[in-house]
Each structure stands twice: as structure tokens, then as C-alpha cells.
Amino acid sequence: MKKLLLSLLVLCLGCSLSSFAQGERSLKRKVAIGRFSNETQYAKSVFYDKDNDPMGKQATDILSTRLAASDKFLLIERQDYDKIVSELNTGGGISENIGADYLIIGSITEYGRKTVGTQQLFSNSKEQIVEAAVSIRLVDVSTGLIVFSGEAKGEASTEDRRVMGLGSTADFDATLSDKAISAAITKLVENIINKCMDSPWKAYLLSYDDGVYFVSGGASQGIVAGDVFAVVEKGRKVKNPQTGLMIELPGKPVGKIRIDQTLGSSIADELSMATLIEGTIDNEKLDTYYITEVE
Question: Average pLDDT over the chain, rounded to whole?
């Protein structure tokens, strides 16, 4: 009897852990990071090239590293940034062109460095300080609307101290720039993650062939064989008279599909094969649907 109870306890514990693991697994959002612009006058000479601004690239790399470390996103590099901004200005959705769920646009709005020293009878010190401010906008590319906008400041410093003429001296520490920008971006990353994860995950039906539906996204996003998703018919698009922008009304669930297999070797070519297990879909109008997690 004791062995039976122990076996049941182990089985229940295993089921609980399995359910917990499934609950923890989350589908990754696709995020494209637009070019960071340097809005300050720092390091801008007559030969300055805004397309190759070192501080802008520095900020982009730091943000990419922070988002990748969260393991919640697939990061997509976009080179045609000016084209993207042009599309955003039209007020329409651009998800099909950009290939991502969200676009991040950033800028370094403030940057400064200073040296502060103290002189005493037998010692003196020199503190190097760098301050930076970063502004970030998060855009839902399906609507073109800004869903988050924030600005944060970061600071980094180092100190050299000499006593009785002994001690270290150093020129300006160039790594302080990285640290100050990183400190500012870190303050915004949590808000970015929360905004992205609060919105429902979506993927799209690409094509249909002999009972098989091909779905955008694959293993890199966290999709696995056996997953079941809801199929939602998109709502009508109406114009918001206050903003002049087109908004999509809530969609209507019309069925469910089951993932049978994932294909592809990279983010660019990944897709999944699925079977409709519930409801009906108009196979001639696949662009009027999207799939999302079952509630």
C-alpha cells in the first residue's frame, strides 16, 4: 500500500512539474531594432557620418545584448531604416514588410563627461564622470502605433587617488561611455519586455496545400510539434476620427490548428506545418486570419 501511495505521489509530482514547465514556456516575439541616432553634438566633426555613428552602434549593441539575455525575443536586424520610418509615417501597419512584431527606435539625447578633483594636504584625487540619456520608442508594427515611449539617464565614474605623490594616474577611461549608456538602457529594458509580452503572440497562415496549413514561425520562436493554437478572423479596420489612423477591431475565433512539424534553419526561412482540428477556414482568404495562443 505504501509503495502504491508513493508511486501515485511521484506521478502527481511529475504531472505538476510538467504543467509548470509548459506554463513557463513562452513564445518569442520578433523584434527589429532600428538604428539608434546620436542627437548630441559629441564626436561630431566635419567628417561625421550619421550612418556610421559609433555611439549609435554602441547603443544598438547594448540593447540587443540586453534583449537577447531575456530569452523572450528573436532579434531582426533592419538596414533599410529610412524606408521603415517612411512606412510608419503613413499610419498603416507594416508587419508584412518589416517581418517583426515590434520595432524599437532609439536615440542618445544627452551625453557629457567631466572630471572632478579634490586637493588635500597629503593626497589628491580625480574622479572621471560620464552621464548619458537615452530615449526609446516601441512601435507595434501591425498598427504603426507607439505602445511605449520612455527616457532614462545613466552615469558611470572612476576615481584615481594619489597619496604623498604615490598612486595611479590615468587618461580618460573610454569604457565609461559604454557603462553610462548601458545603465540608461537597462532602466528601460524591463518596460520594453513587459509591453511586448503583455500583448498576445501572433503568427500568420501563409498557404494551404492538400490539408496542410503553413504557418509563419518555427522552432526559434518556441513552437513545437503538438502545440494547439486558436485561429482568429481579423476584425474590420476602421478609422479613428481623433488620430486619423486606421485601427483593427477585435477578431473572432473561428477554429483551432495543431502544429505537426517545424521547418527551416534560420529566422528568415522558418515555418511550421499544421492541421485544422476544429472549425472552418476560407482557404482562399488566408490573409484575413491570424493564429494566437488558446486562452
Answer: 78
Q: Answer for the pair 132, 111: CB distance below 8 angstroms, yes or no.
A: yes
Say if strands 289-293 and 271-279 run parallel, antiparallel, or are unpaired.
unpaired
C-alpha cell at 10: 511521484
Could you state, in order of their start, the residue ranges of all structural domains in the chain? 27-113+133-157+166-198, 202-293
Residue 245 pairs in a beta bridge with: none
How many CB atoms sit inside 10 A of residue 60's CB? 19
Q: Are 139 and 70 contacting, i.e. CB atoms less than 8 angstroms apart?
A: no
Give the integer Cα–Cα distance in Å for 79 and 61: 14
The three grid cell numbers given for residue 162, joined into one nine-digit string: 594619489
What predicted TM-score, i.e. pTM, was given to this entire model? Answer: 0.73
Task: Domain 202-293: state its class.
Answer: mainly beta
CB 110 within 8 A of CB 153: yes
Whole-angstrom distance, CA of residue 204 vs CA of residue 288: 9
Angle, in degrees to the nearest 10, between helices 175-198 and 54-69: 50
Return the residue matching grid coordinates 494566437. Answer: 292
Cell 549593441 sits on residue: 61
Q: Which CATH architecture has domain 27-113+133-157+166-198?
A: 3-Layer(aba) Sandwich (3.40)
Which of 24 and 220 is assigned the larger pLDDT? 220
Alpha carbons 169 and 187: distance in angstroms, whole number: 32
Report strand pairing: 73-77 vs 145-163: unpaired
In whole angstroms, give the CA distance from residue 267 to residue 78: 13
pLDDT digits 0-9 by tens, 147-198: 899 999 999 988 765 554 545 555 556 688 889 999 999 999 999 999 888 8
Q: How far is CA 17 from the centre of its chain?
A: 29
Do residues 159 and 125 make contact, with C-beta atoms less than 8 angstroms apart? yes
Higher-pLDDT residue of 100, 223: 223
The answer to whether 16 and 86 have CB atoms below 8 angstroms apart is no
